[in-house]
C-alpha cells in the first residue's frame, strides 16, 4: 500500500508506492526541493540524502534551478518557473513561506503563502492504492480584500517533476495531425526548454499532454522510465527543461501564452491533476502501469466490457433515413454487433455539413415519426442504440445561431472564422452550458439512447466573450470545466449512458476526458496499416479498453489502400472493436467471415480490454508486429500478430511471449496444440501466417490445470 512518511525535524516527506519513492524537502529558504524520484527509500535513507555534498555555486547561476518541486518565479532563478503571477502594483516575484501541512486519506497538502502579498499556494499530492502513480495539483487562493485588487495568474503548472541526474536524457512523446495521430517520437532531450503544447482550446492532434524520460538505453523490456501526464482537455503546455548543469525537470499545466487568469479577492484557482510515475522494466512496464492506473483510478466504469459497435457514417454519410438505418441495423445485428450508432445527418436541416448543427431534433422528412421506430427496432434486435452529436458547435445556418448569435466565441469588430462551416459555442457561459445539458438530457430521455458519440470538430478561433462580467480569458478554462460538468450531470442523470469522446478522431485524448467517458475515437484514419502505427503510439499511455478501432471497407475510403478482411479485423481487435463499413456492399462471404471474427473477438475481449498488454514486436521492428494481452490471473492470454509484408519467402520467426508461467502448459483453443510455458517464453509461439502481404492471426491460449 502507498505511504507518506514525514520527518518534522528535517522537514522532509517520502511518498512511496509499491516500487518507488518521491522525496521532497523544505530547505531553510522555504523552498520545496525534489530530492529523489526513483527506487523505494525508507525515511532514514531519504534523510541521508541531506548529507550529500551540494553542487558548487557558480557566479551567475542559482543552484536551486531545476531542483524545485514547487517552482515559483523570483530571485536569481532564470529557468522555467511553474508558478508565475503579477500583483496589482506590477510585482511579479513570488516569495513563498511555508504555512503548514496536512495529511488525510492518502493525500498530502503542503501550504505556502507569500510573505507580503495576499496569495496562498497549496501543493497537493495524492497516492492511490496499488500504484506508483502520484497525482498532483495546486490550489492558488487570493486571501485579501477588495482593496487589494486582483492577482493575475500568468502560469500555474499543476506539477514540476524533478528528475535525477542520468548522464543522458531521451524524451518520448507522440506527435501527429488529423488522421495521423499518436505517432511515437523518441529523441535526445536538448539543452534549454522544450515545450509541447496545444493552443487550440482542445487537447489537439499535434501533441498529447504526456512525456516520458529515460537515459537513452531503455527498451521495451529493460530500463527505468520517468513519466507524467496531464488530465486536461483544453489548451495545455508541458515543458521539458534541461539545464547546462544537466538537471532536468518536467512541468505541465493548463493554459497557454498569453492567456492569463484574474484571481479576485476570496477566489481560488484549482489546477487539473498532473500524474507522474517512476517505473523499471522498460517502456512496456511504464505503459502497463499507466494502463492499470486508467482502469483503476480514472475511468468511470472500468470493469465494463465495451460492446462491439457498428457506426453508419461510411455507409450513408448524409444520405440517411429511417428505412436505410433499420436495414443496416439488421445486417449489423446478424454479425453479432451489440451497439448500433447512427452518425451525422439525423437532425434539423442537416442534409449537408453547412447546416443544422445546434438543432438537436430529428429531421422530420427523414424521421417523420421521430427516432422511436429506429430505436425500437435496434432494441428489438438486441442491440443498444447510440447517436452522434456535436454539441459544442453550431452552424450559422441553424435555428440556434439565428436565435443566439452571441452564444459563440467571438470578438467585436473581427470576423467569425468558420471551419467546417462551424463556429464554437461559448460553453463558459452558464446559460449555454445549462441549455446544452437540458437539450441532451431531453434527447437521451425521450429516445432511450444508450450511448452518445460526442464529437468536437474544430479548434477555438476569435476566443472572445465581449459581454463577460469578469475576465474574458477565463473562457479557455471555464469552457472545459463546464464541458466536464455537463458530462458529469448527464452521467449522474443517466447511469446507463455510455459516451465515446471524439474530436475529428483523436483530437481530444487525455486523462481528463477519460474520467468522464468510456472510450475515445482514436483516428478518422481507419486504414489498417496506418492504424498499426497510430495504435502503437496510443498504447504508450492509454489502455486498449478506451481505444475505438473500426473495420471499414477495402479499398480504404481515406487512403485508397486495400487490405484483407482478416487483417482489418485483427488490427481493430487490439482495441474496442467496431465496424464502420458499408454492409450493403459486403459479399455474403465477407459477412459470414465478419460474423466469425466478431465471435472470435468476443472470446478474447476480456483479455484485450482488461488484461495486461505486452508489445511483443513493436511497430518499426521489421515487418511483423504483435501484441499479447494477459489475464490478471495469468490463466489465459491472447496474441494478435500482424505482418505487413513477407520477404524472400522466409517463414515467420516464432514469437517469444511474456509473463507466462514457465512450469505451466498452454492450449491453443483453435488448434488444440499444447505448448510449454518455458518454451513459449524462450523459443516463442509458432506462427502460421498466410504467405500474402497483410497476413494476420489471433491466437487464444488457456493454461491447462494440472
Defining traits:
TIM Barrel; Immunoglobulin-like; Beta-galactosidase, Chain A, domain 5; alpha+beta; 706 residues; 3 domains; 13 helices; globular; Aldolase_TIM; 20% helix; ten-stranded antiparallel beta sheet
Span between termini: 33 Å
Shape: globular
Major β-sheet profile: 10 strands, antiparallel
CATH architecture field of the largest domain = Distorted Sandwich
Strand % is: 25-35%
By CATH, the superfamily of the largest domain comes out as alpha-galactosidase from lactobacil brevis
Domain Glycosyl hydrolase family 36 C-terminal: 625-701
Protein name: Alpha-galactosidase
Family: Belongs to the glycosyl hydrolase.
Enzyme class: hydrolase
Word description of this protein:
The mean pLDDT is 96. The strands form seven sheets. Strands 6, 7, 8, 9, 12, 13, 15, 16, 20 and 21 form a ten-stranded antiparallel β-sheet that branches. Strands 22-23-24-27-28-29-30-31 form an eight-stranded parallel barrel, surrounded by five helices. With 706 residues, it is of the alpha+beta class. It folds into three domains: 3-297, Beta-galactosidase, Chain A, domain 5; 309-521, TIM Barrel (Alpha-Beta Barrel); 615-703, Sandwich (Immunoglobulin-like), CATH 2.60.40.1180. The chain is built from 13 helices and 37 strands. Helix 10 (528-538) packs parallel to helix 11 (565-572) and helix 11 runs parallel beside helix 12 (588-610). It is globular, with a radius of gyration of 27 Å. Residues 31-263 form the Glycosyl hydrolase family 36 N-terminal domain. It catalyses: Hydrolysis of terminal, non-reducing alpha-D-galactose residues in alpha-D-galactosides, including galactose oligosaccharides, galactomannans and galactolipids. This is Alpha-galactosidase. Its EC number is 3.2.1.22.
Amino acid at each position: 500500500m502507498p505511504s507518506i512518511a514525514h520527518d518534522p525535524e528535517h522537514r522532509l516527506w517520502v511518498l512511496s508506492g509499491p516500487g518507488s519513492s518521491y522525496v521532497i524537502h523544505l530547505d531553510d529558504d522555504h523552498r520545496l526541493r525534489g530530492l529523489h524520484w526513483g527506487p523505494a527509500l525508507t525515511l532514514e535513507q531519504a534523510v541521508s540524502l541531506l548529507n550529500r555534498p551540494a553542487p558548487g555555486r557558480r557566479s551567475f547561476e542559482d543552484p536551486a534551478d531545476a531542483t524545485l518541486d514547487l517552482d515559483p518565479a523570483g530571485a536569481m532563478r532564470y529557468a522555467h518557473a511553474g508558478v508565475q503571477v503579477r500583483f496589482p502594483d506590477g510585482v511579479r516575484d513570488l516569495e513563498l513561506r511555508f504555512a503548514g501541512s496536512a495529511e488525510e486519506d492518502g493525500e498530502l497538502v503542503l501550504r505556502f503563502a507569500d510573505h507580503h502579498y495576499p496569495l496562498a499556494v497549496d501543493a497537493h499530492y495524492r497516492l492511490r492504492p496499488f500504484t506508483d502513480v502520484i497525482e498532483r495539483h495546486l490550489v492558488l487562493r487570493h486571501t485579501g480584500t477588495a482593496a487589494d485588487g486582483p492577482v493575475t495568474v500568468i502560469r500555474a503548472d499543476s506539477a514540476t517533476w524533478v528528475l535525477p541526474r542520468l548522464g543522458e536524457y531521451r524524451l518520448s512523446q507522440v506527435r501527429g495531425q488529423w488522421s495521423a495521430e499518436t505517432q511515437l517520437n523518441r529523441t535526445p532531450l536538448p539543452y534549454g526548454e522544450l515545450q509541447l503544447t496545444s493552443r487550440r482550446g482542445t487537447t489537439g492532434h499535434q501533441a498529447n499532454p504526456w512525456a516520458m524520460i529515460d537515459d537513452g538505453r531503455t527498451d521495451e523490456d529493460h530500463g527505468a522510465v520517468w513519466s507524467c501526464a496531464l488530465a486536461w482537455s483544453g489548451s495545455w503546455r508541458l515543458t521539458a527543461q534541461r539545464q547546462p548543469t544537466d538537471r532536468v525537470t518536467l512541468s505541465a499545466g493548463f493554459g497557454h501564452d498569453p492567456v492569463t487568469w484574474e484571481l479576485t479577492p476570496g477566489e481560488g484557482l484549482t489546477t487539473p491533476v498532473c500524474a507522474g510515475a517512476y517505473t523499471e522494466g522498460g517502456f512496456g512496464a511504464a505503459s502497463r502501469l499507466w494502463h492499470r492506473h486508467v482502469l483503476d483510478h480514472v475511468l468511470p466504469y472500468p470493469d465494463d466490457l465495451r460492446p462491439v459497435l457498428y457506426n453508419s457514417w461510411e455507409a450513408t454519410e448524409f444520405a440517411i433515413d429511417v428505412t436505410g438505418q433499420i436495414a443496416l441495423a439488421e445486417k449489423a445485428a446478424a454479425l453479432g454487433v451489440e451497439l448500433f450508432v447512427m452518425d451525422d445527418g439525423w437532425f434539423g436541416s442537416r442534409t449537408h455539413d453547412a447546416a443544422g448543427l445546434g438543432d438537436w431534433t430529428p429531421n422530420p422528412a427523414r424521421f417523420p415519426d421521430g427516432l422511436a421506430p429506429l430505436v425500437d427496432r435496434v432494441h428489438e434486435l438486441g442491440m443498444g442504440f447510440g447517436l452522434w452529436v456535436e454539441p459544442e458547435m453550431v452552424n450559422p445556418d441553424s435555428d440556434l445561431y439565428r436565435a443566439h448569435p452571441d452564444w459563440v466565441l467571438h470578438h467585436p469588430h473581427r470576423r467569425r472564422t468558420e471551419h467546417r462551416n462551424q463556429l464554437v459555442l461559448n460553453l463558459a457561459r452558464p446559460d449555454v452550458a445549462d441549455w446544452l445539458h437540458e437539450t441532451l438530457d431531453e434527447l437521451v430521455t425521450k429516445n432511450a439512447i444508450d450511448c452518445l458519440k460526442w464529437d468536437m470538430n474544430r479548434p477555438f478561433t476569435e476566443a472572445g466573450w465581449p459581454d463577460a462580467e469578469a475576465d474574458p480569458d477565463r473562457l479557455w478554462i471555464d469552457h472545459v470545466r463546464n464541458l466536464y460538468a455537463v458530462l458529469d450531470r448527464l452521467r449522474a442523470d443517466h447511469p446507463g449512458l455510455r459516451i465515446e469522446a471524439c474530436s475529428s478522431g483523436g483530437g481530444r485524448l487525455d486523462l481528463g476526458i477519460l474520467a468522464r467517458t468510456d472510450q475515445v475515437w482514436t483516428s478518422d484514419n481507419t486504414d489498417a496499416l496506418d492504424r498499426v502505427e497510430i495504435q502503437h503510439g496510443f498504447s504508450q499511455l492509454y489502455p486498449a479498453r478506451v481505444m475505438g478501432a473500426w473495420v471499414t471497407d477495402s479499398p480504404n475510403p481515406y487512403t485508397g489502400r486495400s487490405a484483407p478482411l482478416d487483417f482489418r479485423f485483427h488490427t481493430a481487435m487490439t482495441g474496442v472493436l467496431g465496424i464502420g463499413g458499408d454492409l450493403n456492399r459486403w459479399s455474403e462471404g465477407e459477412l459470414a467471415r465478419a460474423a466469425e471474427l466478431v465471435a472470435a473477438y468476443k472470446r478474447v475481449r476480456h483479455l484485450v480490454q482488461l488484461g495486461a498488454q505486452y508489445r511483443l514486436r513493436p511497430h518499426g521492428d521489421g515487418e511483423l508486429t504483435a501484441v499479447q494481452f494477459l489475464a490478471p490471473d495469468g490463466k489465459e492470454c491472447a496474441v494478435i500478430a500482424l505482418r505487413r509484408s513477407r520477404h524472400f519467402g522466409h517463414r515467420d520467426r516464432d514469437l517469444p511471449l511474456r509473463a507466462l508461467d514457465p512450469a505451466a502448459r498452454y492450449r491453443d483453443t483453435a488448434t488444440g496444440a499444447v505448448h510449454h510455458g518455458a518454451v513459449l517464453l524462450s523459443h516463442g509461439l509458432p506462427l502460421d501466417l498466410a504467405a500474402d502481404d497483410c497476413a494476420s492471426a489471433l491466437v487464444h491460449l488457456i493454461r491447462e490445470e494440472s
